[in-house]
Specification:
Elements: H1 3-24, H2 27-61, H3 65-103, E1 111-123, E2 128-132, E3 145-148, E4 151-159, E5 164-168, E6 175-180, E7 187-191, E8 201-207, E9 219-223, E10 235-244, E11 251-256, E12 266-272
Antiparallel strand pairs: 1-2, 1-12, 2-5, 3-4, 3-12, 4-5, 6-7, 6-9, 7-8, 8-11, 9-10, 10-11
Length: about 280
């Protein structure tokens, strides 16, 4: 090979050698290298999140006094509403505890809420996940459910030293047991194939033939509590379409998820108090 052609092909030959060397490297070395790179990158991601929070703080400082007064009034209204909701919640919890004691029913598993800030979003057609600003340093375990004011966000799929990865319920790899509000038979929910800028959605299977739903008459989909990961009654989305399956024994349908999933800034991780 002439020297000139060899110089032109040198980058490609170097790339081929690197790829072959990486393929023959043991899996243990690859795993250690990936984990080390992620842990070294984590401080940069977290620092960028804190910088965004600081930028937002100084942006709010530039608002006029009238805007701040109006925002304070809105906050006071919301606080009053939440205080009333807290009182209602305490009353309902007391009633549930009384009925459980009366009927000798087991209580639901207890969770410790851990609030976390979102530092990164990865959205594609095949993979949708969030990275939050808390990890092993706050005792977050793999598989813990993650929620927000609109219902279920997803579950923790990977825990690192200072961050954790959350698989969204719009992820096609997430599958869980659910139930249509007002029904008793559990059905299967799975994340759908979502385009980057489209509204998130999922799919349901094994829907009873007696269930009907459409865009004009949607049905609310909630967690069933089966599987022991998510508490029952958490909102998943709205069933906007059901149609008979190919076998004719059940129906399948589409679920419109909360559009806020792609813009969340804070979430709540439910850490089990008794992991067993």
């Amino acid at each position: 090979m002439p020297p000139k052609r060899f110089d032109q092909a040198r980058p490609f030959l170097t790339l081929i050698v690197i790829v072959i060397a990486w393929l023959v490297v043991p899996v243990v070395v690859k795993t250690f290298t990936r984990a080390s790179f992620i842990e070294l990158q984590a401080p940069i991601t977290v620092a960028a999140s804190y910088a965004r929070d600081l930028q937002e703080y100084w942006t709010l400082r530039l608002h006029s006094n009238s805007e701040l007064i109006e925002a304070g009034r809105d906050l006071a209204r919301l606080t009053a509403t939440y205080e009333y909701s807290v009182q209602q919640n305490a009353t309902l919890q007391a009633e549930v505890a009384r009925l459980e004691e009366l009927l000798k029913l087991p209580a639901y598993a207890n969770y410790r809420p851990e609030y976390a800030r979102v530092v990164r979003r990865d959205f594609s057609g095949w993979w949708q996940q969030l990275t939050i600003r808390k990890g092993r340093n706050y005792g977050i375990p793999v598989g813990a459910p993650v929620i927000f004011s609109g219902g279920v966000v997803g579950r923790v799929s990977e825990v690192r030293a200072y961050t954790a990865v959350v698989e969204l319920i719009s992820n096609p790899g997430v599958r869980l047991a659910s139930v249509i509000e007002g029904e008793t038979q559990p059905i299967s929910f799975q994340g759908g194939i979502n385009a980057t800028f489209d509204a998130p959605r999922g799919v349901i299977e094994f829907v009873p033939l007696s269930v009907f739903a459409s865009a004009a008459m949607p049905k609310r989909l909630v967690t069933s509590g089966l599987g022991g990961v998510f508490p029952p009654g958490l909102s998943l989305g709205t069933v906007t379409k059901v149609e008979p399956s190919a076998d004719g024994l059940f129906k399948s349908g589409e679920v419109q998820l909360d559009p806020r999933l792609s813009t969340l800034t804070e979430v709540t991780v439910l850490v089990p108090l008794n992991p067993e």
